[in-house]
Amino acid sequence: MNRLVIATRGSKLALWQSEHIKSELERLHPGLKVELAIYKTTGDKILDTPLAKIGGKGLFTKELEEAMLAGDAHIAVHSLKDVPTIFPKGLVLAAVTKREDPRDAMLSEKYHSIDALPQGAVIGTTSLRRRMQLLAQRPDLVIKDLRGNVDTRIRKLKEGAFDAIILAAAGMRRLGLIDEVRYFVPIEIEQMIPAMGQAALGIEAVDNPEVLALIAPLNDAKAALETSIERAFIHRLEGGCQVPIAVHAQMDKEELRVWAALGLPDGSEVRAKKMVVPVAQAAEMGSTLADAFLEEGGREFLQQAERMAFG
To answer: Among 31, 35, 105, 241, which has the highest number of CB atoms less than 10 A from its own CB?
Structure first.
């Protein structure tokens, strides 16, 4: 096999991610020609409605998956946090790359921390997960929806539409945009638990041995273990971006820590847990942690959160 096609969205971050994987594949396999095929996904077309209201994160993968299943592309490079836990028949998660900074970050032109925000400050985010955790700490904040690519979001901040916005730190670092704002403040995990798979790239591929062999060297064992636990947690709870769920796993030598939280969108109630186990016992940790929430009425709680979010 001497030619491989990557299906990609056309946003600046998606293109950076796909170009990065293209260069890695060409470095690993001299003689392999890697091409990008750009598609506009449903999630890219609908920018005036929160994702949770129009079907969730799968809206960023559907058209790319259709291209692979039709034989027009071999792989797609995603922000793993955008990838549903179930794949269409014929497609697999072939590799998870080494993680960047997994934290969320606050961006502001005026304020250096969440605590420094004035009463009633306007914060931009469309994420129910971020909304829930912000309002649990600061019920006085006004949360307004913020869609669009990273450049658009930063422009709206600079134009004064928001006192601060919340973005993934990894995207800002990958695009070299940290100096575009006065304050770029990563938020510690304990203060704001990230989304499933945040800061890792997931390479989805056709279930073809030749293609999978090319992709295999890009898999990072640590990131793959951490994100498999996070994805198992979300899968067991049957949750996506339609409900406020946060989960983050972190392997440190022989120990693995997992933080997780479920909450109501207005932050009035948040249920959080942290588990620490030896790495040797980590494989079932995501499902085990989800079961701990379920035993305490977690599914009913999430149903309540969904009703609150969508009336």
So the answer is: 241
